[in-house]
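Subject: sequence -> structure tokens, single chain

Hey, anyone have a minute? Need the predicted structure for the following. Not urgent.
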Amino acid sequence: MNEFELIRRYFERPAPSALLGVGDDAALLRVNQNKVLAVSTDMLVCGTHFFPDADPYSLGHKTLAVNLSDMAAMGAIPRWATLSIALPEADEAWLEKFSAGFFSLADIHDVALVGGDTTRGPLNLCVTIMGEVDAASALKRSGAKAGDEIWVSGRLGDAALALSHLKGNVVLSNEEYASCSDALHRPQPRVALGLELPGIATSAIDISDGLLSDLGHVLAASGVGAVIDFRSIPVSRVMLKYIGLDAAKRCVLSGGDDYELCFTAPASRHSDVLALDMPLACIGRIVEGSGCVVMEGETRLLVESGGYDHFG
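Reply:
Had a minute. Here:
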């Protein structure tokens, strides 16, 4: 099977939302009137972002999910994606499962694959995703203001806890691992939430490298500080079992791979956020100054703010 047969068999599908999709030198896309294009790229590298024996269906899902999470953080409607893959070999069974996982999530969010590239090499997956958003209402990192509340979606730390188990740093029972492994292998991007936040949120970011690290980007871009209450951060039952351990606290605060949203909103919009009827928790507030203080009741936690850093 050559490169072009591989593309036709596993990745070429009709793309009705594009003027021209897979199969030509470039895709042709038309952005709806009064919208601007939001564009983001993420790369997943074998041995860095996933294990060599990762389930290909789940890997296909996650390859797109991490990009959809970026669209959610911008309040953008995801529309199109390109996929570039370096493969050690053209393993048909692997490709069948990988593409099935990718397109299953793409179909849920009406995302069309419109191009990409394939080459031989160490396993490397790269998606560029494109979405549409009103220029005036796009969510950014730079709008947080003193007095704003800090919110997060979902539960934090499960993906990092599952990864710690796989690395042998913690030992979970089979039931405990099963309860948190989907957070690592098949994250669910908060696209629906992102579309509800423009007009309510003052800033937003997706939590990919860890809460403190990603919130830190918002604080730096907005020129403000933050105080958060560790006890207000939503966690799962299995995480609660281990929450007294420093390692578990690090999973929640800086573990990464959550792909939840962290956003700020004026305190006056508290009821509007709750009315979204989504799994959301207010975990702190924006203050004058810089940096983030983490409190556990009356006790200040001494934690490292850094999350995942490829070159750290």
